[in-house]
Amino acid sequence: MGSERAEILSDEALRSGHYAAKQIFCKDRLIAWSHRRRFEVGLDVVRALAPRRLLDYGCGDGTFLALLCAESPHPADATGAELDDRQVFDCRERLGRADLSFVHIAALDGPDHRARYDTVVCMEVLEHVVDVDAVVRRLDRVLAPDGRLVVSVPVETGVPLVLKQAARRVAGWRGIGDYSSTSAYTWREYWRGIFAGRTQHIERPVYDGDVPFHDHKGFNWMALADRLGERFAIERIVASPLPVLGPHLATQVWFIARKTIPL
Question: What residue ranges of the chain have pLDDT lower than 70?
Fold first, then answer.
């Protein structure tokens, strides 16, 4: 990471983030490296778009926005949106400033946010969403006509599925992160996951919460690409942590897309 980015990594406001502590600051070096590379790739992708007004949909603890706004140039207006009021309040307290604000996702349905953002980021969110089409419509609504949508999701198919499940099991045994309750696969489900195509290959479990959600089990990034393609034109797919390996050998993929259906 660059000097400015390295400096903010030592900032206590960033290090105390709920997800940052378990991801880019994880005590397991491999897990920390993988997450840091994911953020680095995403930051490079977004910076290349030179955003002026940016929305981070499902911003979590604000790590991505904090890193983005730590370097110059950065968006003149950056907004993070989350479902959990406590998360929104925490981000405001730790990271809020004149050019960086945080709102509840419901606020995005108001008229002030319609077609407001030239760049919308949705990072590691859609794999957990049960009603994906509803979220995609909201992302489309807030995106300006000439804007770009940047979506990051994990690769949970092919060889990466086997490697990631093994790493999660080991991390769970060691008490690292949130991996102790990683969903198990049957051998039949593993087989279908390894050789998955562009259609949903296994039934995904749904968990109860304030909003029903999926975990990573059974997520198919290729099927999501086709769903996004119904409303957006996907211009590029970038792999993480090592873009040169391509999406089928990656841990995450980034879609860079533009709007094709007018508001």
Answer: 1-10, 177-182, 262-263
Other beta carbons less than 10 A from residue 263's beta carbon:
11
Taken in order of first residue, the domains within the chain and their CATH numbers are 3-157+206-259 (3.40.50.150)
pLDDT value, residue 22: 85
| Distance in angstroms (rounded) separating the CA atoms of residues 241 and 155 | 11
Secondary-structure percent of the chain, ordered helix, strand, coil, rounded to 5: 45, 20, 35
Based on the number of CB atoms within 10 Å of its own CB, is 2 exposed (0-12), middle (13-18) or buried (19 or more)? exposed
User: How much is the pLDDT for 262?
Assistant: 65
Nearest to 247 by CA among 218, 227, 229, 220: 220
Which conformational region is residue 216 in: left (phi greater than 0), alpha (psi within -120 to 50 degrees), or beta?
alpha
Task: Enter the pTM of the model.
Answer: 0.92
